[in-house]
Each structure stands twice: as structure tokens, then as C-alpha cells.
Specification:
By secondary structure, the chain is mainly α. It is built from five helices and two strands. The protein has helices at residues 6-35, 39-58, 65-118, 136-140, 151-173; strands spanning 125-126, 148-149. The mean pLDDT is 83.
Length: 174
């Protein structure tokens, strides 16, 4: 693995997964909007409620009480229907976001496990063992090669470095 620069493959995979994780809320929202086509219905209900409220404002409560009360009940009924519709859509949106997040983490775990499986016995790189003397066996896990950096250690280091770099990039944007 050290000769073939596959360490770059691991670093690229970790970077890609971390970037996708940062974009996960946006992606899940886009998927939810594609799957939910109820926005037009809600908009139509809101317009209808607005029109009825304008009409209600033109009616004198004292002179036309029956018409006023009927329109007010109709507004309340439509508003309740809209609230129920919004609650249902919000629950569906939460489910879709949850499913997208679970699928992402399952795929990420599968990718990491496949990388560990493929490069289990080969070190990512080999360095002088005195550089990592007290932690040599831990860093070399699972290869067991003295001075070698195992894939699991490399994945952990890459994940941490990419997370810190993305965190710094986000704090610079703010």
C-alpha cells in the first residue's frame, strides 16, 4: 500500500464522506422536496384563507351576523385543515431526513469497513519506529509491522484532520 499511494485513496474517501456529511441537511431537504408535492396545496389554502379574511373584513358584524359567523367558521375550519396538513408534511419531512441520514451513515460505514478489509495486512506507510516508539504497536495495528501505520490508525487520523480542517473553514466563513 505504501508504494501505490493508496493512502491518498483513504484520505480522499474520508474527505468526501466529511464533505457529504456537511451537506447532508441540504441534500436531505432537496430529496424531501422532490418527494413531497404538497406545497401547492398549502399555498392554495393560505391564499384561500387570506381571501376569506379580506372578505370578512368587509362584512359588518352587526348588520350581517349570520354571514359573518358562517365565514368565520369556514376560516377556522380551513385553518385547522391547513395546520393538520402542515403537521403531516413536517412529520414526513423528518422521516425522509432520518432515512437519508441513516442511509448515508450505513454507506460511509460500508466504505470504511471495505477499506479496512482491503488494506488489513498492508501498512499505509512505514516510518522509523523510534518516531512512534511508545505507541508503535497501536499505530501499526492491524499490520503488526514495526514502524508501519495501519489502516485503522490512518482512518482515525484522517477523520480527525478533515474534521478540524472543515471546522476551521466554517469558523473562517462566520
Amino acid at each position: 500500500m505504501a508504494e501505490s499511494c493508496c493512502w491518498l485513496l483513504v484520505l480522499g474517501s474520508v474527505l468526501l464522506c466529511s464533505l457529504l456529511k456537511a451537506l447532508l441537511p441540504t441534500v436531505s431537504l432537496c430529496i424531501a422536496k422532490l418527494l413531497q408535492k404538497d406545497g401547492e396545496t398549502e399555498l392554495q389554502m393560505r391564499i384561500e384563507i387570506g381571501n376569506m379574511k379580506q372578505e370578512l373584513a368587509t362584512i359588518s358584524m352587526m348588520d350581517e351576523f349570520a354571514r359573518y359567523a358562517r365565514l368565520e367558521r369556514k376560516i377556522n375550519k380551513t385553518t385547522d385543515k391547513l395546520k393538520t396538513h402542515v403537521k403531516t408534511r413536517t412529520a414526513q419531512l423528518a422521516k425522509i431526513k432520518w432515512v437519508v441520514t441513516i442511509v448515508f451513515y450505513v454507506l460511509q460505514a460500508a466504505l470504511m469497513i471495505s477499506l479496512i478489509w482491503k488494506y488489513y495486512s498492508e501498512p499505509v506507510t512505514v516510518m522509523p519506529s523510534k518516531w512512534i516508539a511508545p505507541l508503535e504497536k497501536l499505530v501499526a495495528f492491524p499490520t503488526g509491522i514495526p514502524g508501519g501505520v495501519g489502516i485503522t490508525c490512518w482512518l482515525l487520523v484522517c477523520n480527525k484532520v478533515v474534521a478540524v480542517a472543515l471546522n476551521c473553514a466554517q469558523s473562517i466563513e462566520l
